[in-house]
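**Fold tokens**
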Amino acid sequence: MDKFVDLFQDVGKLWGVYKSAYLSGMGNTIVMALAATAIGCIIGLVCGILNTIPYSKHDPLPKRIVLKVIRAIVRIYVEVFRGTPMVLQAVFIFYGLPYFSDGSVAFKGNSGIWLASLLVVSINTGAYMAESVRGGIISIDPGQTEGAMAIGMSHVQTMTNVILPQAIRNIIPQIGNNFIINIKDTSVMFVIGFIEFFATHRNIVGVNLMYFPSAAIEMIGYLTMTLIASFLLRLLEHLLDGSDSYELVQGDSLTMTAGTYRHPTRGTPFDEREKEKRERMRQGLKNRNGSTRGER
């Protein structure tokens, strides 16, 4: 119990002295995670759509070649960035681009570090989102695509008006999952000098050597950010689901009968205006055939 008391005291001392530094690191983490997730979703959306453009052997050869090349490029991009650690991607982009360009392309200053970090996290997120979007698109019932084409919609119209709205709703949980992952994975950007929450912890520990109390603050901070993000994402899902209580309009007979089939002799159950006409038609059929079907 004494150890816990000592831990709480040390955490309080660190927070009292370095509160502004910790909060600044948390702010950088949130901003980077939000921006990278948004850009990554755009990249993934574009890649997912390009990867699902349909083609058949009856299409022109140039179209088939272009689509096959696009799919190959997307596949290589996804496999490379999903199959390598983000920390190595950061090192490769931040140090590799100046190496291969002889210094003509370099990330200089604090703005350069921000740009490199945003580029790395966004591209990495886009690789994961590309597969999520592709899965969301192919999860939609093919009958909806066929129905859209049957009424004359083009592929672009079908995607924008029928498929994508449903697919995006289906992948909202995965978008939220990637956002929460990015909150945590931005911690590896310290290797290129980006000062986020974890880098703040390393700097503070380097000054006072109170590693575990500072790590406790880090754990509480990351958990707080991820819990708030989870709550907001679940709220967004609930709003997108809409109301779960639907009532049919039964007060207006015109609304109830709109679009219903009209029997030649019975009309609709709500139609009273043509009763005489239907009676005359029934009488005429009876005189012609001797009896109605119901009387046989």
Notes: Residues 247 and 256 are 13 Å apart (CA to CA). The two ends are 95 Å apart (CA to CA). Residues 292-296 have pLDDT under 50 and may be disordered.
